[in-house]
Amino acid sequence: MKKNSSTEQEDNQDQNDSDDDSDHFSEVDESETHVGNTDTLLDHIPDDNPLCDTGLTFAPGEGQRPISLYSDPDAEYLSFPTIFCGQRRPDNKDRSVSVHYTDIVKWELRSMDRRVAQSVPNIFFQVKENSVKKHK
């Protein structure tokens, strides 16, 4: 009989659980599920306004030709702010002895400061930049 009463209690609990689900509560708000997919830079134009033929330009270097990421001298230290903290490496013109990019990369990877060696994207960036510099 004891077994029967525990089975009945479980059945009652299952019924209560199914009743709780009927309140249609969801921890995820439906309005938040598509955030980012529907965001645009366009303003809502009401239907009663005539079409406007003015355009917005938001290119900061309008009229300029884009340059390759690997030919930009500032790309590496701007792309990895946690490694370089916005500080540019000294240029060879500022050094008493000229140093090749390969030597700089090897030193950074072997350095006591492990930020460079632990950043996989930075390592791939350095390898690609090194190959681009060799083929120039």
TrEMBL record:
Ranges of biased composition (kind: Basic and acidic residues): 23-33
Region entry Disordered, spans: 1-48
Biased composition, class Acidic residues, residue ranges: 8-22
Protein name: Uncharacterized protein
